[in-house]
Specification:
The complex is a heterodimer of chains A (153) and B (103). Chain A is of the alpha+beta class and 153 residues long. Chain A has one domain: Sandwich (Immunoglobulin-like). Helices cover 28% and strands 39% of the residues of chain A. Chain A is built from three helices and nine strands. In chain A, 35% of the residues are buried. By secondary structure, chain B is mainly beta. Chain B has one domain (6-31, 38-101): Immunoglobulins (Immunoglobulin-like, Sandwich), CATH 2.60.40. Chain B has strands spanning 6-12, 15-21, 44-51, 54-61, 70-76, 83-90, 95-101. Chain B has a four-stranded antiparallel beta sheet, with no helix packed on it. A three-stranded antiparallel beta sheet of chain B has the order 1-2-5, with no helix packed on it. The chains are: A alpha+beta (153), B mainly beta (103).
Chain lengths: 153, 103
Amino acid sequence: MKPQRRMALHATGAVGLAAALTSLGLLTPGQALAQSKAFQAKTLADTLAALGATGAADSRDIVITAPDIAENGAVVPIAVRSNLAKTEMIALLVEKNPALLAGSYEILAGAEPDVSMRVKMGQSSDVFAVVKADGKFFITRKEVKVTLGGCGG
Amino acid sequence: MADPMKIRASLRDGVVDVRVLMAHEMETGQRKDASGNLVPAWHITEVTATLNGTPVLKVQWGPAISKNPYLSFKVRGAKAGDTISVTWTDNKGDKRTDEAKVS
């Protein structure tokens, strides 16, 4: 019984620490500031810089699930999954939107690096997923064509 | 006050698939109304999800997220009956929290 009890104690300790750090806000203020900058950025380079992801490496371990052709640019379903170990953050960028960054997702303990959402796209564009895993940044892209009004893209 | 969220949390093979549908206008701040004035931006900026009170996902959103946003994510290590809680905050400071039980 003893080793099991010890393990259980360790487990609750780790969870408690993470919760305490978050509640103290140690993890948030600086990041929040950087985030708001990232949401203003108008070019891919600026957005990556604001995320701290300049020079992100191409990776095939990030999977973007999105339609090749989206009929309605106001509602484009996109899912991003990362197969990289220790994924901490997933961000979705739409290259030809007025501001590139659509959303960023901080993956905390317990959550799988697999999120989906629906975004607006002004026109056909490349969609980028930026993933931070184990302190490093990775990026991948997918092209989505938007046919507004059904007249072809 | 905003309408309630619809939250479904279904357990399969030890992983909870959480799907959330929020009711929100999500104005981009780019659109003009009938008289040519810009409609001011009004969108959700932050979403936090917790499992039994422990944060599992923190989301930052810009105006490019669609109207009545949909969000889905997966959480490991939950049991049936656990509580998933989701809170959003918009750029006008409005907030809403809703809960669902894992089933």
